[in-house]
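REVIEWER CHECKLIST
Item 1: Sequence provided? yes
Item 2: Single chain? yes
Item 3: Sequence as submitted:
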Amino acid sequence: MDFYKLPDTLAKEIDVFGEDVKGFASGTLNPIAFKGIRVAHGVYEQRKFDTHMLRIRCPGGAVTPAQLRQVAETSKRYGAPHFHVTTRGELQLHYVDLADLIPSIEELKSSGLSSRGGGGNTIRNVMASHDSGVRSDEVFDVAPYAFSLTTRMIEEEDSWNLPRKFKIAFSNQTDDTANATITCLGFIAKIKDGQKGFRVYVGGGMGAAPIPGVVLYDWVPDTQVYYIARAIKLMFDKHGDRRRKHQSRFKFLVKKLGVDEIRRLIEEDMKTIPKGLELTFEDWANKANDSIDLEPSPVSGPEYDLWSKRYVKAQKQDGLHMIKVPLKLGDIDNEEAIKLANFLEKLGENNIRCALDQNLYLRNIPTAYLGNLYTLITSMHTLSANPIMIGSMIACTGADTCKLGICLPRGASPMIAEKLLNSDLDLDKLDDVRLHISGCPNTCGRHHSADLGFFGKVMRVDGEMLPAYFIMAGGQVSDGGTVYAEKVSEICAKHMPDFVYDLFERYLSKIENYSSFHEYVSNGGRADIAELAGNYKELPTLAANKDYFYDWGAAEQFSLLKGQKAECCAGVFDMIDVDSKLIAAATKELDGLSDEKEINDTLYRIVFSACRMLLVTRGLEVKRDEQAFELFQQHFIESDLISNEFTAIVTAGKDGDHATLNAERDTVVALGTAIRALYKTMDDSLRFTAPEPVCEVPADDDNTPGFDDADDADVDVSKDFRGVGCPMNFVKTKIAMESMEAGQLIEILLDDGDPIQNVPGSVKLEGHEILSQDQRDDGHWALLIKKV
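Item 4: Structure as written out by the authors:
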């Protein structure tokens, strides 16, 4: 059984990626260009030097026992002692060495799994409700749509170079357990006049700027799923904002154009799609094997009864059950996963789902074998002996592995659990509470959808930084009822366990008055949160208690230097920037050269980089040098984007005709200038329409009302970036510093919050020196930088 079919092109794509890995390892492939390539293969750098995370596609969270075993064996051979279940129902290998990437990918492919599209600007993992097909009150089973659509989408070449990542989800009931209402494209099962169909949502997403989805269609027949998904992909490819990474998500396009215009554009593109492409489904039946070669091992007693009450649920199929396996921080040991896979394989193939809560759900388990599974699961390093609320807590990896992370949720989460488990609170009354923690404003821990959420920030005492979290409350996801959690207060990381205990104690003292924790938060709970957090505002200095200045699980004092650039922003513009800088540097070098070979090599680099620079905007990848010249001639000169006066030197570059390049040195330089000027005219859809070059970042006005003169008379440049969000405030800072000399000083004004948290660290990573950062009376910050 395969839940999706690997495309025929995958083997060749892996071979090409293998050559890219070799090129990067040998130094012949630029690191930025390699980043743009590898993230689309689901490969991300980790904090541990020269190691990588590998994200594996699992549509609907589904894997077979054989596939689970393969992941565990690959992890055991090349990665960490465990692997990870993500908040999008995928599996991740961690700490894979560069040399082991291709062997790992090949092993996964042998079992029908792929990491292609696990990252980058691609069609990401298609989600479905983890209980789809077995839930007794579901509208209908939506998982087959996720499986079939995955097979279709990963076959299509235009799924790999979108303006930004694109996510799809299917939910089997209005409580939206797959988060269809907060994803790029979401389908909620709905039957109309006896026909299966979906309510369709678009434009949802979380991240640092969360936006709930809006209804595109109240109902469409299920036969339209592929056509809608295909048309939206075409429309997003044409109209998405590729120039500004922080505005490139599909949710921003929906917000910009409005749902009516989005619908019009989609329906235009639907007309271009041939008929007869409705999704087809294989037999992914929910059943156990007819014959099971395994002796039942019944178990009884109060511990088994409590486990069964908490984690075993009857399916709509008579005699079968779904079992939740709560994992510690979403991790499962390799050896234990192999044992689990070996056992489950005897029962059937369709019996594992990876869920959005970072846990495993086992399905199609006959009653006779519940005791066998209880014995196996409770021998593993899981949370199956704890109340549901503990095993449902979500924590992203944070700064443990993520280069963007600020705090360490994987350190805080166990300390909260320990505090609660050692308390006298009745935690079984908190089954409905969703507590989610993210290490930074990005929503990998889904804090915006939580009843109680936290995301990492920085506090300061006497100028020293210490780890802290904003407190969010009131999130809810459902068809027609989705609301995001609101920021209520903040708390030092070391006070989180005590604060959470205080809040749950307060809630349990009032629980008879509310039907749920969400209702409590909406009716007085936020005031309680603010009050209780206020009890922890007094913080010690570093000299008085240095423990507060170390994050949970950290061996070093807290620092923002670990916060680096997000991997998912790699792609089109990073790759363009590589060639643009090569052209500029080579052109500058040219006048100072006298050696004929060096001159020839430099002229060739200019022509080659100019030809390659914008090919990515046409979805074209260059694997051999001669391709760059051929494709440039076809797509830029013959299409009249670049003058045909450059044809001769493009041909000379392809042929290695150094004499012609040398004789036409001025034309070579002019080509480099022309291609960089053309880039400046590019619009958000990668079309070159502007009649004059356009400055991507407008100049700043030093006379902005309210700008404070720099306190230091020796400051060379002053800029006011209040009101400028991340990352543009950093971009503007870099641009302002480009014309400065080494040793000069620049003072910039920044807002409190994300700007002062992010910009200083980014400036340090560029190699410059932060001389001071002072908060002014009105709350904004003055950052003094020395250019190095």
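Item 5: Key structural point noted by reviewer: The chain has 23 helices and 23 strands.
Item 6: Recommendation: ____
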